[in-house]
């Protein structure tokens, strides 16, 4: 198994000028279910303004790590920080900084996108003209206007995914953790989400899980890769190869071993 790469430079993730630059940080995150380690000593950080891909094969520990960072799971060991907030010790403050799109995230299917997002905004304390402005913004950016008042239960998987994206972005968070954000989308919708992530990266810090290497090449300057619950690569995307074939070969070499 290849060792974890050490990298530097503001766009590829590394050495940070000050602690205030660290927006997402995993410190020795481990999650055990009996003797099974879903993650073991996962340590990495993502600095302000970075888009970092989080890669690994199915069952590698990607979603578990994201849930630990988001506070949806409690670690067996280690700590998670969002924008300097310890997720376990100050869950509410950390959640204010975070927009989280889980894989197959739950939605209120009896509600419309408009109704659900209004409700979510109120829960988060976003009200009045600010809420109206944010609703209009996410409806436009996530292409929801055509289904704005249609029950979520009647929407396709792709539209439901876009409602989840709108939910994650509604309160204008500093940090976005997105687990398979283009899952279920058609090619035009995928292109739109990639453009949106590129736009959001101007002001947000983004950790993005995906299986699509073309997506990684298009929008992520940096990659963190996990296998069997452990980090096996952390470095510039270009270090994985100059094209998708080389990236796929490198991916297999890093994740095929036990």
Number of separate strands: 10
Residue fraction in strands: 15-25%
Uncertain ranges: 1-19
Determine and state the CATH class of the domain at 19-100 and 177-255: Alpha Beta
Count of helices? 8
Largest sheet: 6 strands, mixed
Account of the 3D structure:
Helix 4 packs antiparallel against helix 5. Mean pLDDT is 89; it is low at 1-19. The protein has a domain at 19-100 and 177-255: Rossmann fold (3-Layer(aba) Sandwich), CATH 3.40.50.300. It has 258 residues and is an alpha/beta fold. The longest helix has 14 residues, at 128-141. Helix content is 34%, strand content 25%. The chain has a 6-stranded mixed β-sheet with strand order 6-7-8-3-9-10, sandwiched between helices. It is globular and about 50 Å long.
Would you kindly provide a brief summary of this structure?
This protein has 258 residues and is an alpha/beta fold. It contains eight helices and ten strands.
Topology record:
Blueprint: E1 22-33, E2 36-47, E3 51-55, H1 62-70, E4 77-82, E5 85-86, H2 91-97, E6 98-101, H3 113-123, H4 128-141, H5 157-169, E7 175-179, H6 187-200, E8 205-209, H7 213-219, E9 222-227, E10 230-236, H8 244-255
Helix pairs in contact: 4-5
């Amino acid at each position: 198994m290849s060792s974890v790469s050490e990298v530097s430079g503001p766009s590829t993730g590394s050495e940070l000028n000050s602690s205030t630059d660290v927006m997402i940080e995993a410190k020795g995150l481990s999650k055990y279910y009996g003797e099974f380690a879903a993650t073991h000593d996962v340590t990495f950080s993502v600095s302000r303004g970075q888009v970092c891909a989080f890669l690994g094969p199915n069952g590698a520990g990607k979603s578990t790590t994201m849930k630990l960072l988001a506070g949806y799971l409690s670690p067996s060991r280690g700590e998670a920080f969002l924008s300097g907030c310890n997720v376990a010790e100050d869950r509410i403050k950390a959640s204010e900084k975070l927009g989280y799109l889980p894989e197959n995230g739950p939605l209120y299917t009896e509600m419309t996108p408009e109704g659900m997002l209004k409700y979510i905004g109120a829960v988060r304390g976003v009200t009045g003209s600010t809420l109206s402005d944010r609703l209009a913004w996410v409806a436009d950016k996530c292409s929801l206007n055509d289904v704005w008042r249609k029950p979520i239960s009647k929407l396709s998987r792709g539209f439901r995914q876009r409602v989840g994206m709108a939910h994650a972005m509604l309160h204008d968070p500093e940090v976005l953790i997105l687990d398979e954000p283009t899952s279920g989308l058609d090619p035009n919708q995928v292109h739109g989400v990639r453009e949106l992530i590129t736009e959001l990266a101007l002001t947000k810090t983004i950790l993005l899980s995906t299986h699509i290497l073309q997506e990684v090449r298009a929008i992520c300057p940096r990659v963190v890769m996990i296998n069997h619950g452990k980090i096996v690569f952390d470095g510039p995307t270009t270090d994985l190869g100059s094209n998708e074939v080389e990236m796929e070969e490198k991916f297999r070499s890093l994740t095929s071993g036990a």
